């Protein structure tokens, strides 16, 4: 069997922050905060994948075994993680072994960043610079941000921040999972384009070109995709307890068996989706549905598109954003 895409590994569900848009902040009463143990981690078949991303709903650098985890995964595939950046200086030796380091930053404006993420932008800048000034060929440094209505204006400023820190790229993601009613209206995507949002994205793109760094902004117009960007045909998540999920959006470390979502003006509860083994995931109807949707691309005659799996119908990722 050819290698699969990526395995996302939820090495910790703990986090020292409580960011505005994070489900941990919204579901704090029922959040199960723990670290993945080494026994579970060692069972992951990294050889089957091109890439391992050591991050789930939590801060990976809080797992006391993160250094050993990076070493184990790096023997079989490329490795990266996304961090809130606060502990980079404590783990610099392991960070320098990564292929990809993504640091979450809410805004290039210090006050906006602190409002959304509750931590200092200055501290992050120091830690990102530490990596860019100490690295050889790796890791690639990516600033990962979330486009919100209340911060989008400062997106061009984030490009300057990234360049000053020595980062290679900025990725602007969407608020594609809305866990609470209070966040409705913060999303920048929809059925029509928003002029102010498009202007900020365009300006950020121009600034990135001027400064010679990469810039990717996720689409803002909703349109049903054959397969979402998480692509559960090629990729999967290993949850903190070792269960396999098709994506992070169907895995949440809460006591409940369902996941609340706000989707197009209403709240819905979708069941969590887990498989007990990689074999079970590979053979699942869930994965097969997306495989059959992708096959439509190779049909010469018009073919009926299999409907999205039920839990995906109310997931914004299924609509390309
Ligand atoms: S559409 Fe959403 S819920 Fe379905 S696999 Fe993709 S990310 Fe997961």
Automatic annotation (TrEMBL):
<keyword id="KW-0479">Metal-binding</keyword>
<feature type="domain" description="Radical SAM core">
    <location>
        <begin position="1"/>
        <end position="214"/>
    </location>
</feature>
<keyword id="KW-0949">S-adenosyl-L-methionine</keyword>
<keyword id="KW-0408">Iron</keyword>
<dbReference type="InterPro" id="IPR013785">
    <property type="entry name" value="Aldolase_TIM"/>
</dbReference>
<dbReference type="Pfam" id="PF04055">
    <property type="entry name" value="Radical_SAM"/>
</dbReference>
<keyword id="KW-0411">Iron-sulfur</keyword>
<dbReference type="InterPro" id="IPR058240">
    <property type="entry name" value="rSAM_sf"/>
</dbReference>
<dbReference type="GO" id="GO:0051536">
    <property type="term" value="F:iron-sulfur cluster binding"/>
</dbReference>
<dbReference type="InterPro" id="IPR007197">
    <property type="entry name" value="rSAM"/>
</dbReference>
<dbReference type="InterPro" id="IPR050377">
    <property type="entry name" value="Radical_SAM_PqqE_MftC-like"/>
</dbReference>
<protein>
    <submittedName>
        <fullName>Cofactor modifying protein (Cmo)</fullName>
    </submittedName>
</protein>
<dbReference type="GO" id="GO:0003824">
    <property type="term" value="F:catalytic activity"/>
</dbReference>
<dbReference type="GO" id="GO:0046872">
    <property type="term" value="F:metal ion binding"/>
</dbReference>
């Amino acid at each position: 069997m050819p290698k699969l895409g990526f395995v996302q590994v939820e090495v910790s569900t703990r986090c020292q922050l409580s960011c505005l848009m994070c489900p941990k902040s919204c579901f704090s009463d029922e959040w199960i905060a723990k670290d993945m143990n080494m026994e579970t981690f060692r069972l992951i078949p990294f050889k089957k994948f091109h890439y391992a991303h050591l991050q789930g709903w939590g801060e990976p650098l809080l797992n006391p075994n993160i250094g050993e985890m990076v070493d184990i995964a790096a023997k079989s595939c490329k490795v990266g993680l996304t961090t809130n950046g606060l502990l980079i200086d404590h783990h610099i030796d392991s960070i320098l072994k990564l292929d990809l380091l993504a640091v979450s930053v809410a805004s290039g404006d210090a006050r906006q960043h602190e409002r959304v993420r509750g931590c200092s932008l200055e501290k992050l800048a120091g830690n990102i610079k530490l990596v860019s000034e100490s690295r050889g060929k790796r890791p690639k440094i990516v600033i990962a941000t979330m486009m919100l209505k209340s911060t989008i204006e400062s997106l061009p400023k984030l490009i300057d921040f990234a360049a000053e820190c020595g980062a290679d790229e900025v990725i602007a993601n969407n608020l594609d999972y809305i866990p609470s009613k209070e966040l409705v209206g913060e999303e920048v995507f929809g059925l029509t384009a928003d002029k102010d949002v498009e202007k900020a994205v365009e300006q950020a793109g121009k600034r990135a070109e001027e400064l010679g760094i990469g810039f990717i902004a996720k689409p803002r117009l909703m349109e049903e995709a054959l397969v979402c960007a998480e692509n559960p045909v090629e990729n999967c998540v290993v949850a903190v307890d070792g269960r396999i999920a098709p994506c992070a959006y169907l895995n949440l470390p809460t006591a409940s068996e369902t996941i609340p979502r706000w989707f197009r003006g209403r709240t819905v509860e979708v069941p969590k989706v887990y498989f007990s083994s990689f074999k079970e995931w590979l053979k699942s109807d869930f994965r097969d549905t997306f495989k059959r949707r992708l096959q439509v691309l190779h049909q010469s005659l018009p073919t009926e598109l299999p409907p999205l799996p039920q839990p995906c119908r109310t997931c914004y990722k299924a609509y390309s954003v």
